[in-house]
Specification:
heterodimer; A: Chemotaxis protein chec; seven-stranded antiparallel beta sheet; about 35% helix; about 25% strand; B: Rossmann fold; five-stranded parallel beta sheet; 5 helices
Chain lengths: ~160, ~130
């Protein structure tokens, strides 16, 4: 995992516990939904040519957002594994929906890992960002880089309690 | 118990596909499946089409899963249909709340065939997996 340390926050969770909860959610969701083994990568996100951004905001128990930046290879690998179909046979709607559903499940898993199973969770619907200027930017966001069986992708996480 | 007609309610076409696939693997490959993209569409569908089991997401546009179940349980013709809720936002409080409205079982996404079998009392685990 590459992690650019952000601003210090007054949180009861430290950055290590947050990143552990996030890493666990990414690894489990990719394995359970797409049968893809994911590992944290010591790589700089700037070297990854992503072809789309998807995100989701949550407002309870904590407030924040999750963003995913994926290469086309990564998206293709994920969607083909989940659908059991070749990329070329899938519609744009199916591809987008599939990626957003992964994010939806992953976000729920992350919040469960971090806050436990007793807390109620409130999340927005996941969405695709077509204009980078509308993507939320928190200077203190945590950054993660992963390798999904050869396909690199990265994520950004913002969390305020 | 036979669930010959199963209605899947989820705004994600991918999630509906995964749910159906899990039911097939769990042994329900001969059941007839119908799909609705939210609670409102499901209520409309049920006016004309009786089903034996409903599997519904929680977080959906127009009408969410909790509202859908409450409406379903208020109607004489549909109040007895068992409902399984599947959600990525599961927690103990929500499960208890949904159970009080008459939900049969509450499962966390991602779904698996084993979770379905457990929920239907045909597996080795407990009915709810959160």
């Amino acid at each position: 995992m590459h992690w650019e340390k952000g601003k210090e926050r007054a949180m009861s969770f430290n950055e290590q516990s947050i990143s552990e909860a996030f890493n666990k959610a990414v690894i489990k969701t990719f394995a359970d939904m797409a049968f893809i083994d994911v590992i944290s990568e010591h790589h700089h996100e700037g070297n990854i040519s992503y072809s789309g951004i998807m995100g989701l905001e949550f407002s309870h128990p904590g407030r924040g957002y999750i963003l995913f930046y994926m290469t086309k290879d990564c998206k293709k690998h994920l969607v083909e594994n989940i659908y059991g179909e070749e990329w070329i046979n899938l519609s744009d709607m199916e591809i987008d929906d599939c990626l957003l559903e992964i994010l939806n499940v992953l976000a729920g898993e992350f919040l469960k890992n971090l806050y436990g199973e007793r807390e109620k969770v409130a999340m927005s619907f996941p969405r695709l960002y077509f204009d980078e200027e509308t993507v939320p930017v928190d200077p203190g966001q945590l950054k993660f880089v992963y390798n999904g069986e050869g396909a690199l992708f990265f994520a950004r996480l913002s969390l305020d309690e | 118990m036979a669930y010959d007609k199963i209605l899947i309610v989820d705004d994600s076409v991918t999630s509906r596909m995964i749910i159906k696939r899990c039911f097939h693997i769990a042994g329900y490959e001969k059941s007839e499946y119908s799909e609705a993209e939210d609670g409102l569409a499901a209520l409309n569908f049920l006016k004309e089409h009786p089903v034996d089991l409903i599997v519904s997401d929680l977080n959906m546009p127009r009408m969410d899963g909790a509202t859908f179940v409450r409406r379903l349980k208020m109607k004489e013709g549909t109040s007895g249909i068992p409902v399984i809720i599947i959600s990525s936002m599961g927690n103990d409080a929500l499960r208890e709340e949904l159970k009080e409205t008459g939900v049969f079982s509450v499962l966390r996404k991602p779904l698996s065939p084993d979770k379905i079998l457990d929920a239907l009392g045909e597996g080795e685990g407990e009915g709810d997996e959160f």
